[in-house]
Amino acid sequence: MMSQRLIFLALLAVCPMSAQAQSLEAALASVYQSNPVLLAERAKLRATDEKLPQALSNWRPHVSLSISQGFSDYGAPSGGSLPTAPTNNSLIGTAPQFYGVAISQPIYRGGRTDAEKAQALSLIRGERAKLLSIEQDVFTAAVKDYMDVVLASATLDLNMAHQNLAQRELQATRGRFKAGELTQTDVAQAEASYSNAIAGRERAEGALNVAKAAFFHDIGFHPGKLRAPDAAPLLPVSREGAVELAGRNNPAVVASGFAIDAAQNSVRLIRGELMPTVTLNAKVDQQRTEINNNAQSDNKEVYAEVSIPLYEGGSVYSRSREAQQTVGQLQNDYEEARRIAVLAASQAWDEMQSQASSLQALDREIHADEVSLDGVRSEQAVGARTELDVLNAQETLFQAQLAQAQARHDELLAEFSLEGAVGQLTAAALGVRVAPYDADEHLAAVRDKWIGLSAPDSSHRATPLPTPGKYTNGGYYDIGEPGTGVVVPLLDETNIRDYVSNTTQSGGIPRQNSAQVVDAATMAALNDYDHDLRPRKPANKWMESGDP
């Protein structure tokens, strides 16, 4: 009987995939470094970063150089006489040349530059939150793939053990039949049980192959011997706490909030087109015409230009109304995202509690089935029970063991679903020891870049410690200028009690839902959405694992 939990998160250093058992951290590290969906989202974030220098470019001068060179020849018309030249009667030949430099410096654009800059920052923050949401999605798939292989392997082991037991039972039944103690019916029943066990084992082998294929697709390497996790992550201690955190911390909710900010700035940007613009212009040019004595003119101009739009056909007004409707749409999208996150947290919490209760009942059932099987075998030995009774008792115990393995699998997936719902299913929050992706480095590299066609990629650099400041809209941390971390909801003291540290009871079984205040280091990590992404040991040591 398997008495310990089959499924928990264990994190060990990433090592070459060999005969040594592979940890869940190795799978998550592989996903973090090589999953194409996650890499594509990082590229999308880097593309979004470029919106900030594009907005800032409206404060910078525009410089243009104009050069022209030509030639013209004026001769006599057909059948006519030559035109009269200014000084003689020869042909008139010209080679006009023009050289000019123009500089235009925006002074005031009706507030559009500030609006565009604020919009770009909101889009960047929202895209960072989307990146964390994608990271949680691929981690969810990776955890499921990992535990599906663990479950399929455990199911195959149980089926193989059940097949061996059925084979021994069949051999014993045939022996007793030859001795005259049992009938041919008993032998047929044992043969049917053995054939059913073979079919179950073959189905388990097929399920394991399917699980391994999904593992390779999502994680990037073929699974070997997987080490079942033996520790649980930090989880909310109450259903109410989980719901509250999900409604504020879920990356999809955070991204929706910044989409609203971007849309509101879009309204400002459009309305700025109705405002006056002020531009300072400067021109220097030289024009030369080679007509006998090479005439040349030099011009220099510096002037301010004020443009006041009076009426543009109503297009700006229409686009402003359109943008306002978009804001209303996104506000409803935000509420829907919040409800979805709350629903996910509620369902994950209820599923986790249901599976925990189910496991307790299954433990008792398996113990009773084992006692029952021993009793039936003893009674069969004295003729009080039939062979069918023994086979039924074996099958009952086997099905209970399969249900126990499935319940452990489902309990862990519910735990990680809950982690995702509250926004903590990330490499930083889980403490996966892997080279972290630093979004700030790329933003800082392109923010004030005036020229250059190369696109920097900062996908494997260390992230500095975050230095967040309070976001003006309330309850969020700002990425700063140019940015030190994505904006996230602020956890208050009430939410501190919603996170617990799972310690270990005697017997090696983790104790869940033991309420205690999280220490300052863990709280700092929870408060910042990027967390401290540098490799570190979590303050509560929840990820330490035993020997494989």
Radius of gyration: 37 Å
- Give the number of DSSP strands: 10
The coarse silhouette is elongated
Strand content: 5-15%
CATH topology: Outer membrane efflux proteins (OEP)
Largest sheet: 4 strands, antiparallel
Structural domains: how many: 1
Taking the alpha carbons of the first and last residues, their distance comes to: 19 Å
Oligomer: single chain
Task: Give the overall pLDDT as a whole number.
Answer: 77
* H/E series: HHHEEEEHHHHEEHHHHEEHEEH
Strand order within the widest beta sheet: 1-4-5-6
Percent helix among the residues? 40-55%
CATH architecture: Up-down Bundle
The CATH superfamily title: Outer membrane efflux proteins (OEP)
CATH class membership: Mainly Alpha
Helix/strand/pairing class, anyone?
alpha+beta
Low-confidence regions: 1-19, 85-91, 459-548
Count, helices = 13
